[in-house]
Amino acid sequence: xxxxxxxxxxxxxxxxxxxxxxxxxxxxxxxxxxxxxxxxxxxxxxxxxxxxxxxxxxxxxxxxxxxxxxxxxxxxxxxxxxxxxxxxxxxxxxxxxxxxxxxxxxxxxxxxxxxxxxxxxxxxxxxxxxxxxxxxxxxxxxxxxxxxxxxxxxxxxxxxxxxxxxxxxxxxxxxxxxxxxxxxxxxxxxxxxxxxxxxxxxxxxxxxxxxxxxxxxxxxxxxxxxxxxxxxxxxxxxxxxxxxxxx
Length: 247
Hints:
The chain is mostly beta strands. It is built from one helix and twelve strands; from the N terminus they run H-E-E-E-E-E-E-E-E-E-E-E-E. It has one domain: Porin. 10% of the residues are buried. The model has no long low-confidence stretch (mean pLDDT 88).
């Protein structure tokens, strides 16, 4: 329990430190839609997939399409290992002022998920290592931009998720609360951390139809680093649908 409380306090301090810096508020609310699926093969193995459609300026700007399949190994009920692939198609949209043309990213990633409960509160700790290949963009003399090759970079992400039931109904359905905070840390070629580049803070409510299906609606704030002491802050409304299956 102490470890969980230390992590919660640490993330509150990180969020507070970001808020204390010079922050540019992005006025338009982004809208993100996510579908999460998992097929359980047996007690040890499963395959998962994520589909993300992200739009800017409240549905008026095409932003990001993301596809993320993975293979998962369940060591036990509390420890899970995954390897996966991400296809990310980014279109120019706020709050990405440096992105002038559409770019594609392909990355391979490795992940460890740790779970534990304290009373009726469920905690998840997600550690993800990303190996990224993404389009390099060059600035032409006539003011246009073109793709000039491919860049490679490493990135580490850590997410702390808290989940608890708010109301259980007699038919087995339930209303639940979920929150998470995630930090994004670029790395050197030798995987040494460089700096914090992004922070996500999410608060939401979900409705569980059964143990394998739920829908969630939440608010997330995204902080992106602009300079040494400046950030851009973006409000996001996020809808998530989860549907899992057994083989």
